[in-house]
Design a protein that fits this description.
Chain B: Keywords: Membrane, Transmembrane, Transmembrane helix. The complex is a heterodimer of chains A (212) and B (93). Helix content of chain A is 74%, strand content 0%. Chain A is mainly α and 212 residues long. In chain A, helix 1 packs antiparallel against helix 2, helix 1 runs parallel beside helix 7 and helix 4 packs antiparallel against helix 5. Chain B has 93 residues and is mostly helical. Chain B has a domain of 58 residues. Chain B is built from four helices and no strands. In chain B, helix 2 packs antiparallel against helix 4 and helix 3 packs antiparallel against helix 4. The chains are: A mainly alpha (212), B mainly alpha (93).
Chain lengths: 212, 93
């Protein structure tokens, strides 16, 4: 196992704590907004920790893609009607599923870079094969499920929360598989696990919509 | 792979998250689902790591596309949560 630097370790611990604080009891609107911002801060800290621990050779391309994506995301968030928030969230969840799938295929396409091959570098180890399959399956289910949910929620919100919570949980599970594939990324596994567990809890709590 | 000790360390936060989400007040559950949708962009951090480490044009392109899609979902997701909770000055509360 690679030894994490103290700075990176603090970053991951901070990110996990911020994610947990974001889920702490929401008493009123102000507290809810504060908690949501903690979630965002946790994500930013996780990205920083992820970049800090790796030798980045293509930083300009990565930052360009992140800036372009952030710009498009900002426009969506600013211009979208709040009445169509649930269908938009379903589409955003589909994007997360696609991102998960693409990440898994990128790992598969250059497996030698991630020390997940057998000692003779001939093929994936059994565990890696299972984890990669899990990441791909989660990504594909989230992508397809979210697109189906988008179709179902256009014009009607019934039951969207429950399914979105369960799809978010599955994204978390896929994130855990990706984190376990990447050498020593326990922080990322913890954060993805938090999303997976919270999504599962909310998905089980929210009742399915009754047909009128 | 992650050592079993690390797996033991990540178990408590995961259990805590399950219990915290279960304890959410019913009126805040839909908003919490919105936040969770935004937070589920966390595999984006994985995409950053993969893009940083991977070699070859094809895998690099795949990981950069993942960063693009994940960034859209992350920013739009948190932006929608902010608006839904009345935090944006442009929206009526």
């Amino acid at each position: 196992m690679t030894m994490l630097s103290p700075v990176a370790m603090l970053g991951w611990i901070g990110a996990v704590l911020l994610f947990l604080l974001a889920l702490r009891t929401w008493s009123d609107g102000r507290a809810a907004r504060r908690r949501a911002r903690m979630g965002l801060a946790g994500m930013m800290l996780a990205m920083g920790a992820a970049l800090y621990t790796h030798d980045v050779v293509s930083l300009p391309e990565m930052l360009s893609m992140a800036a372009l994506g952030s710009g498009i995301g900002y426009l969506i968030a600013r211009r979208a009607s709040m009445r169509s928030a649930w269908p938009i969230l379903a589409l955003l969840q589909a994007m997360i599923g696609a991102a998960l799938l693409l990440t898994a295929f990128a790992i598969d396409g250059n497996a030698i870079a991630f020390a997940i091959l057998t000692p003779d570098d001939a093929r994936l180890t059994g565990t890696s094969m299972v984890l990669l399959g899990l990441a791909k399956a989660s990504g594909a289910i989230v992508l397809l499920g979210s697109l189906l949910l988008y179709r179902a929620t256009v014009g009607a919100r019934a039951g969207a929360e429950r399914w979105l919570a369960l799809l978010a949980s599955l994204s978390g599970l896929g994130g855990v598989a990706i984190a376990l594939l990447l050498l020593g990324e326990a922080g990322l596994a913890g954060m993805s696990g938090i999303v997976g567990a919270a999504g599962l809890a909310l998905g089980l709590l929210l009742r399915p919509a009754k047909a009128d | 792979m992650i050592a079993p000790l690390s797996l033991l360390l990540i178990a408590p936060p995961i259990i805590a998250a399950f219990l915290l989400a279960r304890a959410a007040m019913p009126r805040w559950r839909p908003a919490m689902v919105m936040l969770l949708c935004a937070m589920s962009a966390v595999p984006l951090a994985g995409a950053w790591i993969v893009a940083a480490e991977v070699g070859g044009a094809g895998p690099k392109l795949l990981s950069l596309s993942a960063i693009l899609l994940g960034s859209i979902a992350l920013v739009a997701g948190f932006g929608l949560v902010e608006r839904a909770l009345g935090g944006s000055k442009d929206d009526p509360a």
